[in-house]
Amino acid sequence: MSERTSVAIYLTSMSVGGAERVALNLCKGFVNRGYDVDLVLVEATGDLLFEVPDGVSIINLESSRVLTSLLPLRRYLSSRQPDVLYSMMTEPNLVAIAAHYSAKVDTRLIISEHNTLSISAESIKDKLVMHIAANIYPIADHVVAVSEGVQRDLYANTRLISGMVSMIYNPIDVDTIREQAVEPTENKWLTDDSYQVVLSGGRHETQKGFDTLLKAFAQVEQDNVRLILFGKGPETESLKDCAATLGIEDRVCFPGFVKNPYSYMAAADVFVLSSEYEGFGIVLIEAMACGCPVVSTDCESGPAEILEDGKYGPLVPVNDDAALAGAINKVLCDPTDPEALQTRVDDFDIETAISQYESLFMK
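-> structure tokens emitted (363 positions)
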């Protein structure tokens, strides 16, 4: 490698999401370590584009779909020849492998998997993508799994063999989160001490289990408890309908996209992750960094690792609204010590992850 290492991070866009925030943190960490960093996007769109750190070059492949970015990515590799191409998420990984193979450059290809492939493959298309991934992932120089659960799943369901996959937790910019957490929020429930607020959020889709959360919240009988469910997605309207059917629409707020979710987390009484599955569950660590107690489903994979099997917050079975309601009530009555939560979060700080990536690059 050259004296000043160049790293290209390849993903779809910078729309608000967990993988995109991870990409931001990787960019920041590598730039701070003196790397040349290119953020290579299938399409340079998304609200998080405005948060990309100075010193990062944004490369727009100007493609409407991941698959059609193959040729532009190959051209980029041939002309720029970065020392490392780091790809994020399953479909971009497949395109990265094809582009890297056909470009025949000395660039090292490291792909990263953020989901448990065997669980997240629901549609026919997903299953086809998983089948292809299972067979061609070994072509990459190395694979990164974002949790032990994802690593186990990769070994069990692909042709990858021992030594081909490293586990590196997603980097968290703890200092920035804590800085933003103290900013004021204008939400009336969060500024009124007479309310206890249950908070959750993310892309409104089946994976996130928000319907189970609504059913659980309907079983929380205290008059002063409110639920804020930020984010948006294909299920937003059906979730609003579900709240109305359950008779809790006056106790549930759907604020949509929230620019600073950390101020919400700092003011809330409990954050709930209700997912059916996760690759990691980065939002749990973000809430903990704000000092907010957490409750999570014991889904595959990530939450049990983050919470150390319930030490830092209750874990409940997936799709069990009664158990989720009980855990919410428990934390509202007896919240986890915020200092303990923030001490745990330091284990996931951005500097720790970047050091692990540097070791991997130098292998």
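Residues 77 and 103 are 7 Å apart (CA to CA).
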